[in-house]
Queue: 4 jobs
Job 1
Amino acid sequence: MLNKNLEEQAKALYKDRFIDLMPFDGAIPSDWHHGTVSEIIELHDSKRIPLSSRERAKLDKIYPYYGATSVMDYVDRYLFDGIYLLLGEDGTVVDEQGFPILQYVEGKFWVNNHAHIITGKNGFTVELLYLLFSLTNVRSIVTGAVQPKISQASLKKVSIVIPSETELRVFDESIQPLFAEIRNLRAENDRLATIRDTMLPRLMSGDIDVSDLDL
């Protein structure tokens, strides 16, 4: 819940400044321009390697294995290490309102071939991309009636307003502490989950004696 609140704070700040243009009286500054997503993203899809459920069953559960919408499994190897944005490519690619399914991920991980792997360029950090896409309706670029899909080509052609790199840098500095806290809270939640998953079976089996605890 706290992470959700932090994300909503960051989105509200981005919307106010770069979509509603409130600090600029609703007008795009002269050093901004209309462009397309192709100008601000780097795609790393060529590095994706899907693993079948049979292959994954043989692997130790260490690093997250991401699909289009969430962690599908864990594996003992990784393809990426760092902070990335995952955007659903096929399957469930948009929510009920038409906004893309996004995953803000960090650390060592593997991705199957159902999610685009994205980093930014020309002043856009992964965090700025996360905020931009979370506020950009992409229903119009989804193809496929049976298997919805957002292709690389369609994604790159989405029209956006691109602020100056100076403006982006200043704003990015203001929202990085929020995302740092999000990452810290995730790490703490993961640590507590690991302790729970380790201790609970031992408690249930009686390996740990809690009879003398004064509760």
Job 2
Amino acid sequence: MENFFSTIWAVISTFRFKDAIDILSITLILYYLFKLFRQSRAGQLVKGVVVLLVAYAISAVFNLTMINYILKALFEFTVIIIVILFQPELRQALERLGRNRTFKSLVPNSSQNADSDVQKAIGDVADTCIVFSRSRTGALIVFERDSVLSEIASTGTELNSDTSVSLLGNIFFNKAPLHDGACIIRNGKILAAGCILPLTKNNNVNADLGTRHRAALGLSEESDAVVVVVSEETGTISIAVGGRLIRDLDRASLHEKLSDLIIPGENEKTDLFSSIFKGRKEKKNEKK
């Protein structure tokens, strides 16, 4: 017992402020990794890795030479295997880190146009969606934010043009060659049209949703883009953002939502810690 307490005292006596920062950093990394795994299929892969570790321990205890040798050789390439297996989750985590405004504020972005261009684009899209809703014309319009969508844009036709109701109407006219794909808007300009979006990987999506809505959700899951969808069957206007779908929007609510999401207010707190407190505050308000 005396040796045990002396060991603890030796650790405490040498504990410094930088050690606390080190421990806190590792704790946060493990917490967000665990949270990421729980929200994706990576959780099942982690269970598989745990099973292999248990099998390796059993083979070592019972001296199962061949199994132990194979598993040991497998674990020697653990880093490469983890990168291969968890590539989508690691990419998503790094993109989220890059989109965090706490870090993004340290990197200047000189490519942003004036807010007037973005506001005009929002107004044109809102007006166009109302026309599409009445005529039952399907549409898929993407507003790029922090995540660069150049790879997605390369799957379509580059336009680099100003937005207008007539141009958007021509793009999504049901006999036009670009009407099946998505239109991407960057900094208030139409970057490309006829683009192919990734479909959602969420198996719990409503079965009534068609390919356009699944593509909108898919892109919103992999990036911070805001995707506007007009249903060809019902004329319903929806917004997909953050893997969630906001449905049954009219012209006013669509314009308001797009403005709030794409042109954030000056007093909006979007850093890591304020977003956590904001979420807690919203939960308290829901309980009330």
Job 3
Amino acid sequence: MNCSVSVIIPVFNKAEYLQNIFDCLLKQTLKDFECILIDDGSTDESGMLCDRISDSDKRFRVFHIENGGVSHARNIGLSAAQGEYIAFIDSDDSIPENYLYTLFVTISQSNADIVICSATKTWTDGKKQTVEMPPAGVYKKKDLLTDFASVQKKTGIYGYCWGKIFSGKLAEKTRFDENLRLAEDFDFLLRLYPFAERICFTDETTYLYLQEAGNSSALTDDRKIDYRAQLTINLRYKHFLARENALDGRNREIVRQLLSNYVFFTIFYCDICNLKDVLNDLGSLCEQEKIAFQGRNAFEKWIFLLLRRKCFGLIRITMQSYIFARKLLRGR
């Protein structure tokens, strides 16, 4: 290994934020790091700024690639990383001066496979919100699994790739799914967690996540979300917990609801022209995975009943009637 920590930063049209994260990295008390910048086909000045910092400090390496999405960019970074440990940072976020040093020392001394630090969500208007996490300390993974789903649902802490450091060897055979455009972090970590035995939480440094600047999933148009892909991620979630003998109690309840939600959303937001193929796919998948539906209201329960009985024609009529009724109401 050529350095202690490889920092991987995907960059796409974030010129207005780059100098801030560069300044944060230049101030790090840990000097033995490399920063891999992946310019993901930026059309603003991001590429030029990345080249400028690379020219002035050889710890910064730049890869200019055609736009392929954040997962592809991170995979480029993982393949290029030469550090003993890996840390992801988003280009519009901030880190304190002790960030890399604290993560490096903590993972080195704790013998943990993954270290997760405290995090604060920030807004440009000055608002801040602390992300809750388990008490600081080193845990055997199995001891965190009992309430894994509850903690993830409440905080999301297990699903963010930022605010973490992990062994480069741990990720040697693990990559991001480049077909995903949402929750790709969680999918990647669900591939990583099976190989981890010890996870450490520390509150001695804090990752500052900018909630705005196009980061928030709340800005995503519901109809542009690939709910079938999200269903696949949550099936991976289910399989992870099942393999760890932790798919019971509250974990089972939460994952079951997530699976039900994404089955319903896949149908609800489906183009009516593609509904037949989608229903055939979902019917087979739900039967194979033994998904136990949990409808949250009468409409969802009706759709699930029809899906369970493979009454696909009635589902189509129901959805067409719903769309027609909605158009009438909007026309008033």
Job 4
Amino acid sequence: MFADRAKVYLKAGKGGDGHVSFRREMYVPNGGPDGGDGGKGGDVIFVVDPGLNTLTDFRHVTKYKAEDGQEGGKKNCHGANGKDVILKVPAGTVIKDFETGKVLLDMSNKTEPVVFLKGGRGGKGNRHYVTSVMQAPKYAQPGQPAKELWVTLELKCIADAGLVGFPNVGKSTFLSRVTNAKPKIANYHFTTLNPNLGVVDLGQNNGFVIADIPGIIEGASEGVGLGFEFLRHIERTKVLIHMVDAASTEGRDPIADIEAINKELMTYNEELAKRPQVIAANKCDVLYGDDYETVITLLKEEFEPKGIKVFPISAVSGKGLNELLWHVNTLVKEAPEDVIEFEAEMDIDFMDMPELPFEVKKSDENERVFLVEGPRIERMLGYTNLESEKGFAFFQKFLKDNGILDMLEELGIEEGDTVKLYGLEFDYYK
């Protein structure tokens, strides 16, 4: 079975503890401290493997833990670092927080390994704590705790064009005729339960990758049927091909079908409905005379004024396929080249910060100066590079998500007032 989703537990390695020991040698009765530092814990690393196309491996093994760093030793010996755990995933894999469903990492455009969970820092040995008044410290720093969380791995197909339509309109037949894919074909609803990928080769460096998305039904965007399982594979496509049964062999209205599918796409993700679209009016080989002209004319009058071209085709006989494929090829070439990548919605380094306190107040010295302080603020500033665009964007989101902006307004802040976060100062503007 095609595996495109998996729930797994990930844990980085704990940092090794610093060591407490003292130099003991003949003729050196009062040797100083020589406790070594603990080793760093292993990282959890994701890497794209071009040879993989499913998440099957994660169905069988669901827990992955990096090795802990070893404790430091005497004679200033540094503890060994823990071994990393490397997880190979197919291109297009998105890692989400299991509890919230928010995106943590998208591996679509990653050509190098990505450290997902950093191992804990090793603790310092007692030799670091010698002072003028404390010559023999009997304590050392413990290793940093390990980070751990449950995540959901989702595989979102990377294809240029997505083939969508209600069940049994001929998508699998179309795909088998125009690509090298060999989907199972039968006259039953939802025969296709897996997304199929195929390559359309038009020659002379022309062509594109197409994904047959299993039949969408009304309510799919709310999870009806297998809605979510299907819809997520459309999210990366550049062009959408709507296939409809123009002959209404099952009594369906092709115009209503297209509108229903667009409604589901809009509800699931507004960006999907904005993608370039084309309509493949299939099964035209069973339409004759006035019926053919009437159906095709109605489709063109309804959708071509909206910029959506209609192509009458027959997936069985091959009629009209060449014109359709070349038009889609043009739309794909005109679309941005980069694979659509999902921005991270959470930063793992800050996921445990909500438990830390903070305070927002007016300065005692100047009522137009406001102070934002506390352990949560200190930790955020320690992890954030405000010089980078991404870091500053995270800083602004942090202020909003934690209610700090609302607290400032409740205290009466006005435009031009100063906000201080320890050594940083900002002018406030809405």
